[in-house]
Amino acid sequence: MTRTILTYGLISGLIIIFGIIGTIALNGGAPHDNVWLGYLIMLVALSSILVGVKQHRDQALGGVIRFGPAFLMGLAIALVASLAYVAVWEVYLAATHYQFMDAYAAQVLAAKRAAGVTGPAYAKAVAEMETLRAQYANPLFRLPMTFVEIFPVGLLVALVSAALLRAPGFLPARPPVSAA
Predict the structure, then answer these.
(1) pLDDT higher than threshold 70 for residue 179
(2) I need a surface site. Which of 2, 12, 27, 109 has the fewest CB within 10 A?
């Protein structure tokens, strides 16, 4: 079970981080401005929770699993995926000399300008971005913030996966093909 958790958690985490970094690279080094794209990448990658729990149910448990054990296994896969995401994101930040937050703040402020925000409202946005930039420089702020970006999605996928996979008829195990 541990091997399955680690395997599917690492696969999921790496797919997510390379998907997110890929969108940043395609956007010329600036953060992608489509939040839904980021969460779609996470959701697709975290579907490995369903696959991992199903594999465990079918191969180790004879095709039957209760909600609690399925949920805990899904949660463990989500935890590994989230920790992998955080670790690789930190490597990416270090490799890019922590320029992400500068690019993010510039993008947010440019969007405010394009929306016609000026005067005190724009000054407030600048102050908020400066505060966020200072907070993001602190790993005690950045690491949990990065973890919280992904873990709730994994929690949701673990809940849905456990609810679906507790029914033995949902994606039933295929009997092995006999050599004739």
Answers:
(1) no
(2) 2
